[in-house]
TrEMBL record:
UniProt-listed GO biological process terms: chaperone-mediated protein complex assembly
Protein name (record): BBS10 protein
Domain of life: Eukaryota
Length: 208
């Protein structure tokens, strides 16, 4: 319930509504409008791959390493674009070079998602965060989720992200709950959460 509702103070209760999809309470790190169905990918925060350290002992080697990182990042973005991956969902903050090439190749980036938000997206889509694909830039990317729309959403002064996932089993909806002050919103949220809990218990009883 915590990830599928947003409390918005400063608006009357009549402004409340239900939106299809998921509302993430953060702004894009990189935003590029895209039409039609697209694919989303969620990088793993700590991929289970051997860690390597590189020691650079000269300015020339340092500049060469920066160029290599830039070239690898650009190649990765090209690979994502060629596989129609137009959205990256990340639990960590991305480097500036990633954001630069994401904007250049039209790949929106959402970063710093909570573990709860990542778990919800994984449950909805059935796609787990992926580990980097290493040097293999030729293989088709399959660990993706279908997205019907991905757009900015302004809730009073708070910038959010509204995403619709193309899934069959579970179609998530998000409750936008408005109230003039925080206290009223908290009361409404608590009442609705309690009502959903009662319904859950009722359906469990009926199933038994």
């Amino acid at each position: 319930f915590a990830e599928l509702h947003a409390a918005v103070p400063g608006l009357p209760l009549a402004s409340s509504r239900v939106l299809p999809g998921v509302v993430l309470r953060r702004d894009f790190a990189a935003y590029c409008p895209a039409d039609g169905e697209l694919r989303a990918r969620a990088p793993a925060a700590r991929p289970d791959v051997p860690q390597r350290r590189v020691f650079v002992d000269s300015e020339g080697l340092y500049q060469a390493s920066l160029r290599w990182i830039s070239e690898r990042t650009e190649a990765s973005m090209k690979h994502l674009q060629s596989n129609n991956v137009k959205l990256l969902l990340s639990s960590v903050m991305q480097e500036e070079v990633v954001i630069y090439y994401a904007k250049l190749y039209g790949v929106p980036v959402v970063e710093c998602l909570s573990s709860e938000e990542m778990a919800l997206i994984s449950e909805i889509t059935g796609v787990s965060p992926y580990a980097p694909f290493g040097d293999n830039m030729d293989r088709e990317i399959t660990e993706t989720a279908a997205v019907t729309f991905c757009q900015p959403l302004l809730l009073v002064s708070k910038r959010c992200i509204h995403i619709g996932f193309s899934v069959c089993v579970f179609q998530p909806h998000c409750l936008i709950l408005c109230g003039l002050v925080d206290g009223v919103n908290e009361q409404h949220v608590a009442a609705l959460q309690e009502a959903f809990t009662v319904l859950q218990q009722l359906f469990k009883t009926l199933d038994q």
